[in-house]
Amino acid sequence: MRLSSAVSLVSASLALTSVSFVASAEEVMPICNVWKGYTYEKAKADYPDLTDSINIVQQHGFVPWYTDNSPQQGLDVIIEALQSKCPEKSKIPMVIYGLPKKDCVANYSNMGFNKNLDDYKAFLQRLNDAFPKQHMIYIVEPDAIGLTVNGGCSVDNDYKGAVKVALEMLSANPNAELYLDIGFWALLDSGKPDMLAQIVNEIWPKDGGKLKGIALNVSNYEKTEEMIALCEKFAKLTGRNGMKCIIDTSRNYRGPSATHEWCNAKGAGIGHPPTMDTGNAQAAYFLWVKTPGESDGECTNEKSGEATVGPRAGDFFKDYFQMLWQNGYFVDKKQTSPSSAPAPTTAKPTSAPAPAPVVTLGTETPAPAPAPVVTVATVAPAPVPSSGSGSFLYCGPARPDAASLTAWCNQNCPAFCPTDMCKQGSC
Description:
The chain is of the alpha/beta class.
């Protein structure tokens, strides 16, 4: 979706509606769910037949991405909106995605403005200044540590050192909960789980920091119960029995495809709504980190036969949203109209029995043993418009030369992106 101003982004993405509450023996703390997606309002205008289903999905809220792939002023929009809309006594989830030279293997999301460690520190400090004591739920740097176990460019770019800096800086907020994304594929038998545990123990001392656990399945399709098993496995490998996990359930209702395709995988379905009532002591949250229906990318280079060719990464993909809806939680539970859909889940006290984890359906997608996965590309959400110029971050092929960049901009965004911004790689 291409919006011309920050004001339109706020009106499209944020509405202060109901919040999802969790009760415990000690406190009642809502999860702030005011972030409603970058693309949904325009999608409802373009496709009125999807309005009811989008509204049902939208009421549960998504995790916003604080990423240097968005213009600086676009990040101000996110920060100011969360500050003004989230209740003081609420938990605010957020993805931190700003490593210098991130995504160095797939090169899908490496066009950010953080060029070195000093830039990255300023990027993180901006967040600390904005949320010094708020109850934050931070998902830290998707894929970075998972890529590190394979060596290569992630080691050359010192992802491990930069992530350690992020954990130390974000821990300055006494109320922040930090969850490190470790790349679930690195925990599979085909991966390098022992090396992964060693790396995490190096950057996360057992006697220091506020890292509560790990995030799994970010922007992916793996079954919830399998991610819980990996969470328990990793807790044992690291010697941290009290470790908690966040699981992205946005598109995993039917589990992965046979080849564990990551790009607009066929047969997927919208998963269990965000909640703290996970039914497992180590699963702290189910969250929607990926907005269902936003494309993973064109997917034209995928060889599995299980990817769906779509629009560019972050754009709303109507056919894919319809598939996710039909295959997903709400249709299966017969919650297909606003009147039948419940409000965001109110969790039971943690001492009370909780429902079983999500049971995925296997009628369309078989559940074979996990296939070897070398890397999984994480595609950030659609770029956030700048409140100053209405410009967008460049979203074309990785590492273009100046001529290719200008050609891409002239083709894709002349109506809303100034030429000088195109040349800077930020439209």
